[in-house]
Amino acid sequence: MVTPVINTEYGGDIPSMPRFGEAERADGIDSVLIAPIGVTDLREPEFLQAQIYWHECRQEKPMPARADIDPMRMYRILSKVLLIDVLNAAPFFRFRVVGTQIADWARFDASGRSLDQVEAAGYRQMLMSTYSEVRGARRPIAHRIKWDEPNGAHRYKRLLLPLADDGDNVNMILSCSVIERFEEAEAYWAHPGPGVVRY
């Protein structure tokens, strides 16, 4: 089992640290399914708050800048938020801030660590794909995610909101995740909608 690492400052290559998602693979479980959700179809209050605030901050710009975001205006949902740096070269994405509920759920605080330190290959590929998608789209996108791994079964929805210091080129992503009730999620995944991708 992975030992949580809490509020560790990024110091480059840290070989002694466990990797996010690292787990024994004895049963071979490491499956990720992802399905697109229309952003306007999200009904959870956390997503509504994040969307309203993102639009307020951007005003007439295509996207808000990081400087436009006041974390205290999002204090009700901060524990469910990730702030991700978008880099111009590999590993392309780095976790700047990880909300406490997300760190508890993942059993690891990835703050300051790069995407290539996500050990679970399928999950890492899903993150790379969807982060790249929102970077290219330059607009909010949302997904329903099902991830089964040796440490547990995860069912959640996630909203990705792009940020751009120059108003045009995405250089950060604000992510908000809400865990689904397992029974409701399983009902959906028994007969998922179109566009499902497996990683």
**What characteristic shape results from the CA principal axes?**
globular
Approximate strand percentage: 25-35%
**Proportion in helices:** 10-25%
Largest sheet: 7 strands, antiparallel
Determine the oligomeric state from the structure.
single chain
Order of helices and strands: EHEEHHEEEHE
Query: Going across the major beta sheet, what is the strand order?
Result: 3-2-6-5-4-1-7
Number of helices: 4
Gyration radius (Cα, Å) is 16 Å
Distance, first to last CA: 22 Å
Residue-averaged pLDDT: 85
CATH topology of the domain at 40-142 and 158-179: Beta-Lactamase
Structural class: alpha+beta
The number of distinct β-strands equals: 7
List the uncertain runs: 1-28
In the CATH classification, which architecture of the domain at 40-142 and 158-179 applies?
2-Layer Sandwich
Which CATH class of the domain at 40-142 and 158-179 is shown?
Answer: Alpha Beta
Description:
There is one protein chain. 24% of the residues lie in helices and 25% in strands. The protein has four helices and seven strands, in the order βαββααβββαβ. The chain has a seven-stranded antiparallel sheet, sandwiched between helices. β5 and β6 form a beta hairpin. The N terminus is likely disordered.
Compact description:
Helix content is 24%, strand content 25%.
Task: Lay out the secondary structure.
Blueprint: E1 31-37, H1 45-58, E2 81-86, E3 93-98, H2 100-106, H3 121-137, E4 141-149, E5 152-163, E6 172-179, H4 182-190, E7 197-198
